[in-house]
Amino acid sequence: MLEGEVGMVVGWLGRAAVVAAAGLLGLTGTAGAAPQTRVVFSIEFANPGESGDPEPYGAVVLRLADQDRLLWHQGRTEQIPSRWRYPTTGAAQEEVSFTEDAVLEVCAYVSERDADSDDQLADGCLPYRGHYEPYVINGEDGHVTVNIYGIG
């Protein structure tokens, strides 16, 4: 049931992480579990003109009416890790103090470090349409895909 809904599971470790995250969100229907407020997500970075994995820096946020909730941030440093996905497998979980209906937009402002000039992978926002739908935010040189698996 959950694997079909998620649409993207990476190996058995990824499946275990998503199933565990679903349990924290109350999607598995466990009786007597204390309600948890969390956002479960993953982020993919793409730069088609780049050989190898991109070296992304910037921020990915959920925009609410009164605040931005940071999901991922990497500063532009000398040692930016090469990565095509965050986290590498499974899904990340963050505690949140809002409900899903408070989210207005999914935003990504991400660049990719290059030797000569930096590439822009994503620059902007998309309206929030609910979880289990990928949000592909484009930039001049690539895109960032934000997967929201659940908020609650």
Q: Low-confidence spans: pLDDT under 50, at least 5 residues? A: 1-35
Structural class: mainly beta
Measure the end-to-end span: 19 Å
SSE string: HHEEEEEEEEE
Which sheet architecture does the biggest sheet show?
Answer: 5 strands, antiparallel
The beta-strand count equals: 9
Gross geometry = elongated
Total of DSSP H or I helical runs spanning 4+ residues = 2
Radius of gyration: 16 Å
Strand content: 35-45%
Q: What is the helical fraction, as a range of percent? A: 10-25%
For the residues shown, what is the average pLDDT? 80
Describe the structure.
Mean pLDDT is 80; it is low at 1-35. This protein has helices at residues 2-6, 11-25; strands at residues 38-46, 56-64, 68-74, 85-86, 92-95, 103-112, 119-127, 134-138, 143-151. The longest helix has 15 residues, at 11-25. Helix content is 13%, strand content 42%. With 152 residues, the protein is mainly β. The chain has 2 helices and 9 strands.
